[in-house]
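If you are new to this repository, start here. Below is one unmodified record pulled from the training split, so you can see the exact layout before writing a loader.
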Amino acid sequence: MSAETHQTGEKLTGYHEVFIPFPDVYEAGGPEAFSRLERPIDSGRNLIVLPFQFVEDLALSVDKSNSYGARETLSFVKKATLRDNLVCADEDLSCATYKLTGGLDICVLDTPKFSTSAGLEIGKLVNALQEKIGAGSDVPVKLITSLDKHHIRYRNLGMIVENPGFLQVDEDIVNEGILLGSEKLQAALYSNGGSLPLESAVDILGRELFINQFVRFRAEEQDTFAVVQASMVYNNRQRTRILNASDPLLTMLDPSEYSRGLTIGKSPVSSLVGILPQDMEQYLALQYGCISNDVPLFFLCGKRGSGKTLLSYAFAIDSVLHYDAETRDKRGLDPRKKGGRFEQAVILKPTEVLGGKRREVGALPGTLFQKLRPHLRPYESAHKTTNVSIPFEQMFMHPDFETDDFKQRHPDLKQRKINGGYLPPRNVLELVFSGFMGGDSIRNTLFMIDEAQDFEPYELKTILERMGTGCAAIITGDPFQTRNPNCNRKVNGLTSAIKHYLPKPYSGLIYLTRNYRHQISEDTEQWHVYPR
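And here is the target side for that same chain:
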């Protein structure tokens, strides 16, 4: 395709909408941001303007924080801006426009004439673009960003600033794991023996229900619960694909479950390494989420002090211990094999918020464990709460050799029993920083993805792509506690992942609402810093 060169004064016309997405949009959404901003087929074309200063900002994010979204965006733009895709070059704006799809072009714009020592002058750039579009045109230039500071600054200058709606998810989605039932639905369940076809329950409740969701029925003494379940048909023993989820039912919990006793396979267990659920929400999270073989992806959300870290950690340790053949059989595992349900557990932390700033972890002194130990204190506290009488750091050590980060595990621990099981012949836990995730798929591993609200959506998507045969993930977090400057209540990996996976029959979600810390901690929720 031969390139057309626009001369000075020629108008940039023919576009339905013109967008300037800021780097935070690409970091959060990756190259998917382009597809979300294109026009539908046969309904015109949109234009995305990418200032080269933003390209440099994205490259810096790759170098400093290993941003998955930034890296994939740069790779996408590199392929898209081949000469064969060139539509036109504009000498006046120092830009080149390329065809991305049938409904979207991208204009990569050199920025020296729009920059000062303080950085890119967005106002000057927008004015130049608007002049090219035409003074009388009703096609405005829209800035797209989720960062409040940009909204405040550029709206004050009279520009149009919009949130990336395609990235936003209402933070209340974390409450979709347990829905409030009606008296009519409760009566229908009891009159039908405690169970209803899902379709009938949906008609009565007046809203959609998914497999592994719960319905709560309020009562003065004890709330009761019903759960949506189905008969799962898998493609193989590894359960890598669900072929069919047949006969979905909404079923009341058995009365015995309100004692909150846990069962793994056919075996009642006294506790998970000394930890028992303290309320029904915690029971549902453990029994129907963490423990269930039918829920390899579980979102365990909750406010501070709700126990989400303790529950996920206790299950992780229990699930990697090696048990004898009889115990394995009772737990629903193959008695002919050795090992636990998983070979190891991986704690995965976001690359963000070290000391309140975005920093490359490699720049900090010490081993990876030493760098991140302050951020592992919730897990260390959880470890001390269990009945595992082994120093926390020993859980990361290999029994046979030293590693770059850890010494060899103490030899006396090899024969020490923990809840009837033994430590695996490798490190129990592995600490992985999201910036160190490799490209290969990982097998037979339990991922504990912590503080998911501080992962950008595309970053968390890339991590979950790595999950191979025999893996499961417990994703913990709270959208009301974001610290990543590129994330907020509505744009973060946690809520984005919940929106995508909630309808899947292999996922589950619980938001723990009770604070088990001191009453002083609980009462901070009603503390208004400025008295009303």
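Two things worth knowing about this chain: Residues 159 and 344 are 52 Å apart (CA to CA). The chain has two domains: 4-162, 172-513.
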